[in-house]
Structure formats: C-alpha cells, structure tokens
C-alpha cells in the first residue's frame, strides 16, 4: 500500500546514496533535457545531450585547453566535450561513488588520459593552482550547493583571468505562492536540493565573487518537458520502482513532478560569466 500524500510530501530522496533511481527513470546525464521547440520530438537521451551541447557552445573551450566540470555527476557531459572539442577535462564531485563511476566510464570509453574525475567539494578551496583552467561549467549542480557565493569564489580562484564560466540553474522570477510554491517545495523535498535563488540576486552575486555576467537565457520553455517525461517514466516502471526504492520516495516523486509539469516551475536558466581580470 502506498503512503499518504502527507507522507509522500515529506519523503526525502538521497541523490547520493540512491542515485540509481535517477538513471532508472531518466538518463546517465543527470540534468534536464533541451528541446529546440514543439517540433523537436527527440527522446530523452538525445535531449539531455542537446543541453550539454548548448553549454559546450557557450563555453567556447578549444582543443588543448583545460575545462573544470563543477559537479560532474557520472561524467557523461565531460566525456562528450572532450571527444567533440579535444580539450582536457577535470571533473569534481563531493560524492566518492560518482567519482569512481565517472572514472570507470572514462576508462571504458578510452578517454582516461583526457578526462579525469576527483573527489572535491566546491564549498571548499579547490585542489588546483591559481589560474589553472581556461573555462569552467556547472551543469545543474549549483542547486546542490548550500552557498553559491562560496562556490563561485572557489571556482574563480582556479580560473584564468578572462576565462568563461557557464552554468545552468533553477531560479524564481517572482515570489511564489499557492500551487506553484507547493510544486517547488515538493520538488526541493524529494531531491534534497538547496535554495532556489531569485533572478534579481544573480548579477550582484557574480560581481561579488569575481565574475562579470555576459549572457543570461531563460530556457524554461525548452527544458520544461522534462517533468512530464519524468512523470511518465515513473508510471511506466511503477512496480519496480516501488519495490526498489519504497512507496514514500515513489509517491514523493510523482507529487513533485506532477506539480512542476502543471505549474511551469521551477524556471531554468543558463548564464555565461567571465572571470574578471582584476579580481
């Protein structure tokens, strides 16, 4: 028997200890999909690669340069940019199991010399020299960091002056209330996510941490299909997921993704920033 709605709303999904659920219902890319428009009917696996490509294009990394992947997940985006561009990539994660799986996947793909993953937390000073990287990205990892300001400062410290930082993040553009706030709260709850910032706070946050905002894109309309597809994937594998992960987690995910799909929240952005030369 499933839990009550109240119990489901309180369910917490440990994205580190129980990461397999995310790959079971989605993709090895642990981020949203990107669809160019209503006519784009690509499958999830293609859409998540399309988001990676969208980020790659704006990172402007070149062959022979070094990219820092902040919050690398299982390493699929890092392998993709290394293969497509010919750059070197160092990915970091505060989860040792992610680092292990990412390095194993890189070795299996024959990319271990070009792509490496280390156990490190962006909340702490990073184990690299000053100005060591030509660019950095953070694909949907900032929401797992309790203090974005601290993370940005630590990333800035290892980037070359003028280097590019590209990131995707959830955001609020207006104060939320009613069903929209309930949807976001449920979403944050099941995924153990950190606070979602107000859009107005971002430019000053970047300036204070050594960056200049270059470009901001609200890509909610291109990514929001993710929640309906996640919801359908949950229903398609309901029996197995309930058995493997429990009723509370399953019902909590259904409540969260249903609310997000119906309310067009949380909103999703990509920003490009430049490491200030005088910071």
From TrEMBL:
Domain Methyltransferase type residue range list: 68-166
CDD domains: AdoMet_MTases
Pfam family membership, one: Methyltransf_11
Keyword Transferase in annotation: yes
A molecular function (GO) term: S-adenosylmethionine-dependent methyltransferase activity
InterPro entries: Erg6_SMT_methyltransf, Methyltransf_11, SAM-dependent_MTases_sf
Keyword Protein biosynthesis: no
Superkingdom field: Bacteria
An individual GO BP term: methylation
Keywords: Methyltransferase, Transferase, Ubiquinone
Protein name listed in UniProt: Ubiquinone/menaquinone biosynthesis C-methylase UbiE
């Amino acid at each position: 028997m499933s839990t009550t709605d109240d119990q489901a709303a309180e369910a917490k999904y440990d994205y580190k200890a129980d990461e397999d659920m995310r790959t079971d219902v989605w993709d090895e890319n642990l981020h949203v999909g990107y669809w160019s428009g209503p006519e784009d009917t690509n499958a999830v696996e293609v859409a998540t690669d399309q988001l990676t490509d969208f980020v790659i294009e704006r990172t402007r990394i070149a062959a022979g340069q070094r990219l820092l992947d902040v919050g690398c997940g299982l390493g699929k985006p890092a392998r993709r940019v290394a293969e497509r561009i010919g750059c070197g990539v160092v990915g970091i994660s505060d989860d040792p199991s992610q680092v292990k799986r990412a390095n194993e996947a890189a070795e299996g793909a024959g990319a271990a010399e070009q792509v490496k993953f280390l156990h490190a937390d962006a909340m702490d000073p990073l184990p690299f020299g000053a100005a060591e990287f030509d660019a950095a990205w953070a694909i949907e990892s900032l929401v797992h960091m309790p203090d974005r300001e601290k993370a940005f400062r630590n990333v800035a410290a290892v980037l070359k002056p003028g280097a590019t930082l590209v990131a995707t993040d959830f955001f609020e553009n207006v104060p939320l209330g009613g069903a929209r706030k309930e949807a976001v709260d449920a979403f944050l709850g099941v995924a153990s996510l950190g606070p979602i910032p107000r859009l107005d706070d971002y430019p000053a946050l970047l300036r204070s941490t050594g960056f200049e905002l270059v470009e901001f894109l609200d890509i909610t309309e291109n990514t929001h299909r993710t929640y309906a597809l996640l919801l359908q994937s949950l229903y398609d594998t309901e029996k197995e997921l309930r058995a493997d992960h429990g009723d509370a987690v399953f019902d909590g995910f259904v409540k969260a993704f249903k609310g997000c799909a119906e309310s067009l929240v949380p909103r999703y952005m990509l920003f490009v920033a430049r490491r200030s030369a005088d910071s």
